[in-house]
Write a structure and sequence with these properties.
With about 525 residues, the chain is α/β, with parallel strands linked by helices. It has 19 helices and 21 strands. It has three domains: about 80 residues, no CATH class; about 180 residues, Flavin prenyltransferase-like (Rossmann fold, 3-Layer(aba) Sandwich), CATH 3.40.50; about 200 residues, Rossmann fold, CATH 3.40.50. About 35% of the residues lie in helices and about 15% in strands. The strands form six sheets. Strands 12-11-8-13-16-17-19-20 form an eight-stranded mixed β-sheet, sandwiched between helices. A hairpin with a 5-residue loop joins strand 9 and strand 10. The structure holds flavin mononucleotide (FMN). The site of flavin mononucleotide has 15 residues, from helix 10.
């Protein structure tokens, strides 16, 4: 979530509390930030009336980002002073209130010091870049490496980049005499744990202090920001989620984890270390506000029910289909399944039960989804029909338009006297059209299709939305030069009955986050839980 959005979240919540407005109506367009809405009161959105004021506030804020003045917003559209967030854990609310009270007098991050605790995860290497970027911003870094971390990055690299000595051993006489674990924990303005392993998170939650990192964390009286990074199954594990909840209730801030591919081949889902720009934004936010901010990307609430999609069933299709020619050959396309997997992980993280109907892909399905692995378009349609009913269906799969009319039972042979085979193609069933045209009761309330095109993308999408009877279409240009097919980023246009929105070039995980937040808000406004 953007810094601006985070600040607005606190203010909007205060505004809603102050005015007694019920946050039931659709406010996504107004605040133009799905995360903000998704996080607002667990997925409820703001009234249109409120949204107008928010829009005016954002315009004024954008014009004067450092310190918005009362005069910048017409009185009728001014948001009143925010109230403390009604948080379940006491400390986050108090800290947020303190940050909000700081208001216009946000401190600069430059000149501050952080203690960076590096855990023993594969993402530890990203800390080297993080340290460089922090120092570019005149933020001093003193690093503590766990024993395991030293298997992933060397103390020498960390020392060279941080320009300070590196600390790792609780019982090192020299280190303890020179700085000491208590000083380490108190001299920093902020303690950052990145990557935070499942083990470190568990130690923090349990109050352990059997090594330097955990000692520093237990002894500190400073804000702590945790950036988890681990395998999706480790992240989803009840023990990790329990520990994260405990820490969140203690006032610890989180950034990430993000959705995406893991270092382990073929693994993907929620568990990646937040990207360095997101880490920087969260750190700078904490340093400026003097208090932990809400998480960038996945907040601690994410990844476990209840979320805004709790009680909802979401069907997602992903990947290519393979249409057999003979027992060893097939017609395929270049879809990687990344966008669909990111959407499924996101819906899961917001509390939905997710059925992922996936064509053949190198990616492992996000942990926690009900996976139905299919090969052909017909199998995909059957699986989707079988998984109905659902609250929304998102068709991100690149389904083959045609299949071979007659599949050969034997491998088609090549030979000097044999002509090259001629393949007769027949049209595959249209999954999007079939589901969008299903009878009431069977048709999901929200049907979202993807339109991958290589020319006149938006025009095609506008026609496709009508022709298929879909509610929304996400259109993207999959020409080879865009690198979208198989890549990690996507540039989409959201086509709805209200018009076309051009989204910027974004990581696929971010596209998923925006789309699912938007869809969750739509469901909250337009449908009841069944
Ligand atoms: C190759 C490899 C990669 C690992 N990656 C992670 C990871 O990304 N996240 C995690 O929580 N644990 C990971 N582990 C396990 C931790 O290294 C292990 O739990 C260790 O005890 C953590 O120690 P620490 O929390 O003191 O740093 C990995 C282990 C290995 C061998």
């Amino acid at each position: 979530m953007h810094t601006l959005a985070r600040a607005l979240l606190a203010e909007i919540e205060g505004y809603l509390a102050a005015t007694g407005l019920t946050p039931t109506k659709f406010g996504v367009a107004a605040v133009n930030d799905g995360h903000l809405v998704a996080n607002l009161r667990r997925g409820n959105s703001v009234t249109l009336k409120t949204a107008d004021r928010v829009r005016a506030y954002m315009r004024a804020r954008a014009a004067a980002p450092a310190a918005i003045t009362a005069a910048a917003v017409p009185a009728a559209q001014r948001l009143p002073a925010p109230l403390p967030r009604r948080a379940s854990g006491g400390r986050p609310a108090r800290r947020q209130q303190a940050a909000v009270e700081a208001g216009g007098r946000r401190e600069p991050a430059a000149g501050k010091r952080i203690a960076l605790i590096i855990g023993g995860g594969i993402a530890a290497y990203k800390c080297l870049d993080l340290i460089r970027r922090l120092r570019e911003r005149q933020i001093a870094v003193r690093a503590v490496l766990t024993r395991a971390a030293q298997a992933f990055v060397t103390p020498l690299s960390v020392a060279a980049l941080s320009g300070d000595r590196v600390f790792s051993d609780l019982f090192d006489l020299d280190q303890e005499r020179e700085i000491g674990h208590i000083r380490l924990s108190r001299e920093a303005d902020l303690i950052v744990v990145a990557p935070a392993t499942a083990d470190l998170i568990a130690k923090m939650a349990g109050g352990h202090a059997d090594d330097l990192a955990s000692c520093v964390l237990l002894a500190t009286d400073k804000p702590v920001l945790v950036a988890p990074a681990m395998n999706p199954r480790m992240w989803q594990h009840a023990a990790t989620q329990r520990n994260v909840s405990l820490l969140a209730a203690d006032g610890i801030a989180f950034v990430g984890p993000a959705v995406g591919e893991m270092a382990e081949a073929g693994e993907a889902g929620l568990g990646r270390l937040a990207e360095v720009p997101d880490l920087l934004a969260a750190i700078e936010d904490c340093l400026r506000q003097g208090a932990p901010a809400a998480a960038t990307g996945a907040s601690p609430e994410r990844g476990r029910a209840p979320g805004p999609l709790a009680g909802r069933h979401v069907i997602v299709t992903s990947g290519p289909t393979h249409e057999p020619i003979d027992p060893v050959r097939y017609i395929a396309n270049r879809s990687s399944g990344k966008q669909g997997a990111a959407i499924a992980a996101e819906a899961l993280a917001l509390g939905a039960r997710v059925t992922l109907v996936a064509g053949p892909s190198q990616l492992a399905a996000p942990a926690g989804v009900d996976l139905v692995a299919v090969e052909t378009a017909q199998q995909m349609l059957d699986a989707v029909l079988n998984a109905l009913p659902c609250d929304m269906a998102i068709f991100a799969a690149a389904v083959a338009d045609w299949r071979v009319a007659t599949t050969s039972a034997q491998k088609i042979k090549k030979g000097a006297n044999l002509a090259a085979p001629r393949l007769e193609l027949v049209e595959n069933p249209d999954i999007l059209k079939t589901i969008a045209g299903a009878p009431p009761g069977r048709r999901p309330p929200l049907v979202i299709g993807f339109a991958a095109e290589t020319s006149t993308v938006v025009e095609h999408a506008l026609k496709k939305r009508k022709a298929k009877g879909a509610d929304w279409i996400l259109a993207n240009d999959v020409s080879p030069t865009t690198g979208i097919m198989g890549g990690d980023r996507n540039t989409v246009h959201l086509v709805t009955a209200a018009g076309v929105e051009d989204w910027p070039d974004l990581p696929k995980a971010e596209v998923a986050r925006r789309l699912v937040a938007r869809a969750a808000a739509w469901l909250a406004e337009n449908t009841a839980l069944t």
